[in-house]
Amino acid sequence: MVDAYLMSLAVRSGGSLALHANDVQGVVSVRQWQHSDPNPRGPGVLVSDCEWGQTEVQVGVAPTQVGSWLQVDDLLAGGTPFTFSAWLRPTDLSADSVICSWLTPVGAVALVAVGGELTLRRWHDDRVDDLSTGQRLRERAWHFVGAVVDASEERVTVFSAPWGRTGGPFVREFVGHHVGPRDDNGGLMVGRAAGVATGAFDGNVAGVRVHLRSLDIVELMDLMNGLGDHADHEWHFDDRSDPDSAPPVAEGTPALTLSGAPAWSTLIPPPVESTGRPLVLGGSIHLHRDDVDDCDWPLAATIEVPVDAPSGFYSLRITTADQERDLPFLVMGSARVTLLVPTLTWQAYGNLGRAPEQWPGRSHYSLHSDGSPVLITTSRRPCDTFSPHARLQVDSGDGFADGAVVTHLMMADLYAWHWLVSEGVRPAVLDDRELHHAGADVLSGVDVLVLSAHPEYWTTQMLDALQGHLGRGGHVIYLGGNGLYWVTSLHPTKPHLMEVRRWGGSQVSSVDQVDRTHQYESVAGGLWAEAGRPPNESVSVAFTGFGAGDSLEYERTEASYTPEWSWMFDGVEGRRFGTEGINTGAGNEFDRVDTDLPSPGRLTIVATAHPQTTDHFGVLEYGRSRAPHPLVSAHMVMAETDAGGLVFSTSAVTASGCLVVEGPDAPLRRVVSNVLRRMLDNPR
Fold first, then answer.
1. Is the pTM of the predicted complex or chain greater than 0.85?
2. Distance between CA atoms of 633 and 613, rounded to whole angstroms?
3. Residue 538 and residue 215: Cα distance in Å, rounded?
4. Residue 556 contacts by C-beta under 8 Å, 6 or more apart in sequence?
5. What are the start-end ranges of the E strands in 230-304?
6. Domain N,N-dimethylformamidase beta subunit-like C-terminal spans what residues (predicted)?
7. Whole-angstrom Cα distance, residue 605 to residue 396?
8. Under CATH, what is the fold of the domain 69-287?
9. Which residue of 237, 300, 464, 586 has the smallest Cβ count within 10 Å?
10. Which sign does the torsion angle of CA 563, 566, 568, 570 carry?
11. What is the CA radius of gyration of the chain?
12. How many CB atoms lie within 10 A of CB 355?
């Protein structure tokens, strides 16, 4: 593989792109895409080489920044004793798990769980010594763990106790030279070995405290029972005002930095007696050795985008001696017709079905190596599923979707793009993050906003912007299904980080209910419908069913023949349509009207698709349902807003694949094109 990624998935003309790579020697060129599916039922692969962006890259081997950890600098002083303590809930002890570490004058010292056994590890004089305590930690159980370090007496006392023990921790004393911290770097790390680039702990960390003195066994017993003296350094793990640091309890002391994009949690060790006395302050941090914030590979090239570069889909092609790889990006622009490209959905599915050893950073549809849900993902990693050639591929053994041939990311977005370009409307593209940050103002010149095949992940700010567009009389064409579904947040200063905490709905994994609250924004994770902002209020429909079998035909309703709406079907013969093209008709994931929920305006269902075979079934939030069933159906809908806009929904992930065929055998394209023309004839 070619190890490389772009710092951003979208840029405006006149801007620049930063390419980061690892062990790559080759040539870079830029390609512009109109269509990427080679299926002979469509126009084939339509891509052209650009005259700009060519360069050579030569980057050596670089470490990959993987894993999350906690860190505080300038905390410890050489020769000064200290006591580190914390409550840990390890979730995977199959590999060496670093609990805490600090640099010494001759190397480093760390507390490490080796095969689950608490061990003091010393790096010195080019040697590594492991000194076992005989104390064992258990997975998914809370333990009070730490060390008393007295450099003047060259002694380290390691201690631990399982939750529920109140009579003081087990202790093991070790004597050795140079165990105290260095004078010039008194930092402390939790979950990572000092001097090593990666995190190395899986599990929750709570109640981290540092006393700048040696605690004796009675003081440790008091501390583990929630009765200890105030620590010199302690941090709030329930204050998420800065997602990258835990603020100190004592004013004037340093904050604890969170690196590698770990997940905040409400899990803490429960009280051990009837008074309910807490053992720690609120909250914990769940570290993972496979978390990724940014792979942090070196800059390989900066590509300047010309000021006259047309808006659209592009890729940076890297060609080496034996491989080629396309890294997609968007050149955003402004136009009356604008396609919103669902790059957050790209990221949510990023690297699904790919080996994490080869493709660092897991998808929101996978589990961490410790079995916990992936809550945070990054776009700053090599991501095979971003490719214009990629189709849906799931993790091995997923019985629901394994073997499915579905197009729903960039390739499907190019179906919509090819249609718009072919219609001659001079469209532009916009990406999710731009809508999130710029809000409704970025749509000020847009008459028709087109939502692509699978716009599943939306932030609060994106929904607000869409509502602002509708409130000004703007039009919307929704070409997809399962859209506006999951509550999503972006890091306030690192927009490449995306947060999804699934709970309820039709999902692949779930957080505990107590951990639904997002860390990047104060919203409860789960469905937007449950949060009081159902997709129906913006696009008239909401996710209702899956289709594992062949896609379905639409059938016109009686309302579609009335003078009010018959213009939509000008040039269309017969009642049934939608089996032409690629990714045809109503299928994969589809939506319907729910009259009990709000809508953008007066609704008219102009066509429906009702599967009759049992390989189509409903989403779980509506209860058990399997076709044939009234809840398992797709509704093609037109809505008129109070502000004078139109909202048209095809309501199926697969529908946009019908837009890439032309002529008399393309009735679904004719319907959608008729709608587009009517919207342009009636600007907001």
1. yes
2. 12
3. 60
4. 569, 575, 576, 577, 606, 607
5. 233-234, 245-246, 256-259, 263-265, 284-287, 299-304
6. 284-659
7. 39
8. Jelly Rolls (2.60.120)
9. 464
10. negative
11. 28
12. 9
| DSSP state, residue 563 | T
Nearest to 90 by CA among 136, 45, 134: 136
The C-alpha atoms of residue 160 and residue 134 are separated, in whole angstroms, by 10
pLDDT digits (tens, 9 = 90+) for 477-497: 999 999 999 999 999 999 999
Beta bridge partners of 475: 448
651 CB neighbour count, 10 Å cutoff: 34
Please say whether the structural domain 313-681 has been given the CATH code 3.40.50.300: no
| 586 pLDDT higher than 80 | no
DSSP class of 659: G
DSSP string, 419-453: HHHHTT---EEEEHHHHHHHGGGGGTT-SEEEE-S
Contact 159, 138 (CB under 8 A): no
Partners of 546 in beta bridges: 589, 617
Tell which residue, 235, 287, 240, 296, has the closest CA to residue 261.
287
Task: Map 144-186 to HEC letters.
Answer: EEEEEEEHHHCEEEEEEEECCCCCCCEEEEEECCCCCCCCCCC
Give the dihedral of Cα atoms 567, 572, 577, 580; nearest 10 deg: -120
Tokens (6 digits) for 19: 């390419």
* Cβ neighbours around 12 below 10 Å, total: 15
pLDDT at 399 over 50: no
Closest Cα partner for 592 from 605, 611, 577, 583? 605
- For the chain, give every domain's residue range: 4-64+294-312, 69-287, 313-681
pLDDT in tens, 310-349: 999 999 999 999 999 999 999 999 999 999 999 999 999 9
Longest dimension (CA), the chain: 93
Euclidean distance between the first and the last CA atom of the chain, given in angstroms as a whole number: 48
Structure tokens at 350: 């990023």
